[in-house]
Design a protein that fits this description.
The chain has 580 residues and is α+β, with helices and mostly antiparallel strands. Helix content is 40%, strand content 21%. It folds into three domains: 238 residues, Bira Bifunctional Protein, Domain 2 (BirA Bifunctional Protein, domain 2); 155 residues, no CATH class; 163 residues, 2-Layer Sandwich (Threonyl-tRNA Synthetase, Chain A, domain 2), CATH 3.30.980.10. Helix 4 runs parallel beside helix 5, helix 10 packs across helix 13 and helix 12 runs antiparallel to helix 13. The chain is globular. About 3% of the residues have low confidence.
């Protein structure tokens, strides 16, 4: 059975059983607590907690999806028979629609009847001080004829939460045999019974001040990697032998080591999907993940021609289902990064040559200064890096992030403004009035840019002094003079309208529903202010999460003027503007 048929068969089965099929969300999530979409349940988190209404939004209490997913924890494992970075996750979800018996029975019927696969064994939760042993699930499996039921602990069969807090609960896992005869976990059925006010790491560590609280309704959240299911169904030994990968693998040179082929195939496919969803190479966030993948395979011999072949095969497999895979754009982004990395490899190699031993601190400085990833450093100087480990390198990276977070905590209202130093520079009352005008103008500018250029525009940073505002935003090309003039004219039109500028304070979940813009990587408090320009929040011209300060009405801005537009990095533009 081909992968396309399996994907369709899964969704059709659950639609037939009362679920609504929901399209995949982006790999770049709206949830600020996570870097990338790691599971199908992420787009449904509000429905487990009762904040969302599934019947209103989907016409049913249960949904099914094939979700684009990405896990950075598996990057170093890629190359074996089943680990991947990007993958598609099949899942069925219920928000008070059914509980354990229905969930397990649906899974059993799909695997054994629709797919005609034997189940090797299943696992269930052995219990803990906080949550009892899951005898109910064990009993249901035995009633269905699965006699090999194994009990495991919280680390293995208690899932979630996704991000810094969220729904979680015990799970039951399904194992089937691959073509090599090995038992492989293919499906995880999670029973979201609790909400935990911490991360999964906090949960496993028993962190103080964190607790499990029952959710208002029983939730079911399942996840089955399509690639693993296809591997089992097609009777092959690795995911790279399935029809989701063989067209990619055959484009690679025959003399490459097998593991290198698999890394190239996985990373090439992952790069295509990340760029397709708007991610661009950077030294932080999702852009860092993309850059790491690109530079890892470049350092191992991937050139632009080879990547073009891998990309063509990837688009051939997925292009109809995922039209965001624009071959020309993806290839352009890779080629730009390839050219940059060739230059940085030369500079970094010189610096590396001066070192006798490469410590974790030195390796991170090479990354920070020259963009050399861990893999490239190890590849370029194997003897000097003999004692360098990924764990130590990551610790240095985490130290850098901690310093960045400390600076971010000074930000005002999560908007990117600092009260007294740094990004907001005002040394007197007069200067404060000027930067306040510029701050409001920046809000209007962002909305004007979205009006002219589209929803691709998202804030990536701001810096306001008494002389000007500097606004960084995501956009894939140079903004034309005509487009800049249109945006400038829109802002000045809103100034002439003399719109009131005010705010409402509300819970974060409610604020997100208003359509207000927010810096998607910022971690916001439970209650936020939404500043808006207009007579009401519903009809406002612009609205954003922000702590202020702002003018009281837009006429106070004066005349808005764009001074300059330029590139900051791949996919990120910068505008400088002022008010007179």
């Amino acid at each position: 059975m081909k992968a396309d048929e399996i994907r369709k068969r899964f969704l059709d089965f659950f639609v037939k059983n009362g679920h609504t099929a929901v399209a995949s969300s982006s790999l770049v999530p709206t949830d600020p607590s996570v870097l990338l979409t790691t599971a199908g349940m992420q787009q449904f988190k509000p429905y487990y907690t009762g904040e969302g209404d599934a019947v209103r939004d989907f016409g049913a209490k249960s949904t099914a999806s094939c979700q684009k997913s990405f896990r950075t924890s598996d990057i170093d494992e890629v190359g074996d028979e089943r680990h991947l970075t990007f993958f598609e996750m099949l899942g069925n979800f219920s928000f008070g629609g059914y509980e354990k018996r229905e969930a397990i029975t649906l899974a059993f019927n799909f695997i054994t009847k629709e797919m005609a696969l034997p189940i090797s064994y299943v696992t269930v939760f052995e219990g803990s001080a906080a949550v009892p042993r899951d005898e109910e699930s064990a009993g249901i499996w035995k009633e269905l004829g699965v006699t090999d039921v194994r009990y495991e602990g919280m680390e293995d069969v208690f899932w979630g939460p996704t991000g810094s807090s969220g729904p979680c609960g015990p799970t039951t896992e399904i194992y089937c045999k691959s073509g090599s005869g090995e038992d492989t976990e293919i499906w995880n059925v999670v029973f979201n019974q609790f909400f935990y006010n911490g991360s999964r790491e906090d949960l496993l560590a028993g962190a103080a001040g964190k607790e499990l609280k029952p959710l208002p309704q029983f939730g079911v959240d399942t996840g089955m990697g399509l690639e693993r299911l296809v591997m089992v169904s097609q009777g092959v030994k690795t995911v790279f032998e399935t029809d989701l990968f063989t067209p990619i693998v055959v484009t690679l040179p025959a003399d490459l080591p097998e593991r290198t082929k698999y890394v190239f195939a996985d990373h090439g496919r992952a790069i295509a999907f990340l760029v397709g969803d708007g991610v661009r190479p950077m030294n932080k966030g999702a852009g860092y993940v993309l850059r790491r993948l690109m530079r890892r395979i470049i350092a191992q011999g991937m050139d632009t021609a080879l990547f073009a072949a891998v990309l063509k095969a990837t688009v051939g497999i997925y292009g109809v289902l995922y039209p965001e895979l624009d071959e020309a754009i993806i290839l352009g982004v890779f080629n730009d990064e390839y050219a940059k990395f060739q230059k940085t490899m030369t500079l970094g190699a010189k610096e590396l040559g001066r070192m006798d031993v490469v410590t974790a601190e030195a390796a991170f400085k090479l990354f920070e200064s020259y963009g050399l990833p861990y893999e490239a450093i190890k590849e370029m100087a194997p003897q000097k890096t003999a004692s360098l480990t990924r764990a130590d390198f990551d610790k240095e990276f985490e130290k850098h992030q901690a310093v960045s977070r400390a600076g971010a905590e000074k930000k005002f209202g999560g908007h990117g403004l600092i009260l007294d130093t740094g990004e907001l520079k005002a040394g007197s009352e007069e200067e404060l009035k000027k930067v306040t005008r510029l701050h409001t103008a920046t809000h209007l500018l962002q909305q004007a840019l979205r009006d002219v250029l589209g929803a691709e525009v998202e804030q990536r940073g701001s810096d306001i002094t008494v002389e000007r505002t500097r606004f960084d935003f995501s956009f894939s090309r140079k903004v034309t003079a005509e487009e800049l003039k249109k945006a400038e004219d829109i802002v000045n039109a809103k100034v002439r309208e003399d719109l009131p500028m005010t705010f409402v304070e509300m819970p974060l979940t409610e604020a997100k529903k208003t359509g207000a813009l927010y810096y998607f990587k910022e971690k916001y408090p439970d209650t936020v202010k939404v500043y808006y320009a207009g007579t009401s929040l519903e009809s406002a011209y612009s609205k954003e999460f922000c702590g202020g300060p702002h003018v009281t009405h837009t006429a106070a801005l004066g005349t808005f003027k764009i001074l300059k537009e330029e590139a900051v990095s791949q996919g990120i533009r910068r505008i400088r503007a002022t008010v007179e």
